Amino acid sequence: MSVKTFLLPDLGEGLTEAELVRWMVAAGDTVAVDQPIAEVETAKSLVEIPSPFEGVVATLHGEAGQMMLVDKPFFSVNTGGEDEAPAQQPAEGAQTYLEEELAGTQVPEEEDEGSGNVLIGYGTGGAKTNTSRRRRPRAGITTASASSETTTVATKVINPLVRKLAKENSVDITQVTGTGPDGLVLRGDVEALIGQGSEAAAPSVQATAAPVAPTQAPAVAAQTTGEDSRTALPVASSQVLTGVRRTIANAMATSRREIPEATVWVDVDVTKLLKLRSKLKEAQGSAPSMLALISRFAIAGLARFPEMNSRIDTEADGGLRHTLFEGVNLGFAAQTERGLVVPNVREAHKLNAVELSAEFARLATLAREGKAGVRDLSGSTFTINNYGVFNVDGSAAIINYPEAAILGIGRVVEKPWVVNGKIKVRSICELTLSFDHRVCDGGTAAGFLRYVADAMTDPKAALAAL
User: Fold this and answer.
1) Is 61 a residue of the active site?
2) pLDDT confidence tier of residue 224, bands split at 50, 70 and 90
3) Identified catalytic residue from 61, 322, 349, 437
4) pTM for the full predicted model
5) Which of 171-180, 221-230, 313-322, 424-433 has the lowest mean pLDDT?
6) What is the domain extent for residue 197?
7) Which of 36, 128, 181, 360 matches a 20 to 30 Å C-alpha distance to 148?
8) The domain boundary residue, chosen from 222, 241, 269
């Protein structure tokens, strides 16, 4: 009997874990190559995992609701051969994501010299030499024991990605109680404290959960009964945020914490724009959506006010780097059953209104079905949020971090409006622009918003100038 084990693959952008939503097969079922085996939810999207093997399912290495780690056994299939095949392993010389998380818990006595393949975040290595040198412990790491072969170190955290996450969220990493092997602080330990403020990292408020197995989620059951200690009210339900909901919460908190934002708004007469769209639909049988038409004006405005299409990054030394882009990856907020996501149209500046409308529809469908990929849900440089679909007029939207601005579109309502000194009934829409005050002053932001508003007021003239 030959049993082949499939390891959970890298699902994109350095994601190290995924929540197992459901198995689509059971042990003993016959499966074919590329047949969907399971659904998992990452921080980005819902993903179907297909089988690379043909045979009979031998073992399912997890249960619904469990957090599964990349590069760990996911399921095993009996392919019917004679020899037992080992589980798939990463390419020779490469680190698995779990190894990356635990990297540095043991430091070799001998340092490699020379240059080898670059591993993200860790620099280069090379072939071993006969020269033996004891590596000095890094700052914050104390030597626990030593032998002629290796030096084992006791450390709270070693992964630079975890350190970076803690630094960006003002978490004192030296005071976090880790749930990894030997108290190692893992990414989940830091994420659990994000949003709780500085008190969460104080020694008196350390995490008390016992260490858990690497392939298991921390055992936090949903609280459905009892009384809340702070309010004295009965608890209806209480559960830890996971998946997309946790990602949304972290992104919103990071945006508010990192970006000093300001908001400007203006009411816009869109009567002519609605009439133009109506005429296009009558003449051609279809017309671009209002979102697509406004987006086309916004893209043209970004070319004139490039600060709105930029990003501020914090350098290692604490300095700020301002990056402006040639071209636009246009994000748009989409409400789905799994929460708010931001698909983005790549190189939107190359598309006309009709093409933009088609891309919005395609990506929105993928997002609602949970089939949008990592590339579809990341990499935007400017975002539009059409909250008018919720029948509200305005909102000071939170910027989609790390972008510099977000344009909000309110509902269209009929209002009395002064036109050439006379009061008339017009279709009015409110635009709001939240922007990072570090990239520009209010005059630039107002100039961009005014450009988009004027284009919406007189669309024929605007389209002729594009």
Assistant:
1) no
2) low
3) 437
4) 0.59
5) 221-230
6) 143-222
7) 181
8) 222
